[in-house]
Amino acid sequence: MAELVPEYRMVGGGSYPASVNVEDLEWQTDSYKGVNPQVVDSLLERGHLELVVRAAREREDWFCASGAVRDLRAAGEFERAWEVVRPFAETGWPPAVAVGAAILLQRGLVEEALVLARPAGEGREPGEASKVYAEVLVRAGQVDAAIDVLVPHLRDERLLSFLVEMTEGRGRDGRVLDLVTSLAEEARHMHAEGRRGIPGRALALQATVLERSGRADEAIAVLGADVAARRSGEEIMRASYARLLARHGRMEELRQMATGDHEYAAVEPLVTALEETGRAEEAETLLRDHVAATDCPREYEALLMELLVRQGRLDDAVEAVRPTFEDRWNGLLQSTVVVLAEHGRHDQALCLLEERSAEFLEESAHWVPSTRWWLMGESGRSRDAIAEIEATPELEPEERDTTLAWLLAQDGRLDEAIGLLRSCSGGDPTRLATQLAGLLVRRDRPLEALAVIPGIAPGREAEMRRREKNRQRGTRSDTGDNGGRTDESGRPAGDDGGCADDPLF
């Protein structure tokens, strides 16, 4: 068989270290350290592909490697993409193996892709490695072999789900149904005997395979019996049954479920089905009735708000959830503020903050002002927000500086923002470095941007030292909001709800 790459040539010159450290790769992806994916994307959007390739090589940074590979593959440069990912893939780390094998398949090197993906012994993650290998086998047209690879791991419900997913449309529903049904029957026997640890996912997946095999009535009967017998306490099974009913127009059965013991699992699919069939008013009435009749109506209020927003009724959406705004823990104020901002209604969102009670403002003394400054920065009032911050001396230095830097950047004063962040000391180094790097990229200083971000191995060692120091002090290690996940400005990514103490910065 031919070598994976007959002649190894490094993109841009130089060579990779002898081996990439798998533990470093796992640490980077688990904690979002190294060069943040949004910084990588920003570099690539500005044409710095070769620099990102070089950073992947010199820093052994997976986010740089995966970003560069994505762009190279999009440009049809599969050989170069393979050269970038090869040292990561040859560690046997499943995410890199998956990318590397996909590139080899794109180059027509099927046997080489299979050699790369074939698990070597048990390894660190035998199930995940088998999943990657099975996926490569399917892409190579060897579906039965892929199923054989997964069979020893089907008690892992993630891999059982993957088996069902990867075989869809592959003409193997009979064999897959036999495998899933065997586990589903085992779950039913365990339930009958009162045993714990039931593999409940198999129950829903059996219905999935029956449905896609053209046996929808049987799927509804089987899964309905499981739900009625409470054979699994998993919400996912009840939700699967509700969606199955909705897909096949079983509206009356879905209504019965929505007014019975499993009401929440059924309400969302029922609302969606009503909306999709032009009965949005009926869906709204259903949700308002549930809100009025339930002691803990937050889930239904959230669904009602989402429905009204989809219908273009923003003001009605706000009024529907206004009674929740004083609840700091379960209220929908933050979600409402974000929705209004997404629709350009920053002033209305600011009014909602100003209307809060003195008690709420006291208990949310961090979240309210930080959200207020974010709204002001997003709506062209950065200078007013900066003036407010400068008149608020009690702010923690890190919060003050990072917020000011973001507002300065919003106001077009990038150099001032960069200078401010460079002067920061203490705080979460990952958050500061990511925010600073994002600004440096925007200022067309990409080399400096990468230089301010700690490398993977040094960063991991530094975090271990911080954690050990905190352990000795008896305190929890705080490595930053959202695991270091930030947007380009350095604000935590993914904040779209939750406690009112969660800042939008």
Short description:
The chain has 505 residues and is mainly alpha-helical. It contains 29 helices and no strands.
Given the helix and strand composition, which structural class is it?
mainly alpha
Percent helix, as a range, is 55-70%
* Unreliable stretches covering 5 or more consecutive residues: 1-18, 476-503
Overall number of strands: 0
Calculate Rg over CA atoms: 27 Å
Structural features, described:
The chain has 505 residues and is mostly helical. The chain has helices spanning 22-31, 37-45, 49-59, 62-74, 78-89, 94-106, 110-117, 126-139, 143-150, 157-166, 173-192, 201-212, 216-228, 235-247, 251-258, 263-276, 280-293, 298-310, 314-321, 333-342, 346-354, 358-363, 367-378, 382-390, 397-410, 414-422, 429-442, 446-451, 456-473. It contains 29 helices and no strands. The longest helix has 20 residues, at 173-192. The termini are far apart.
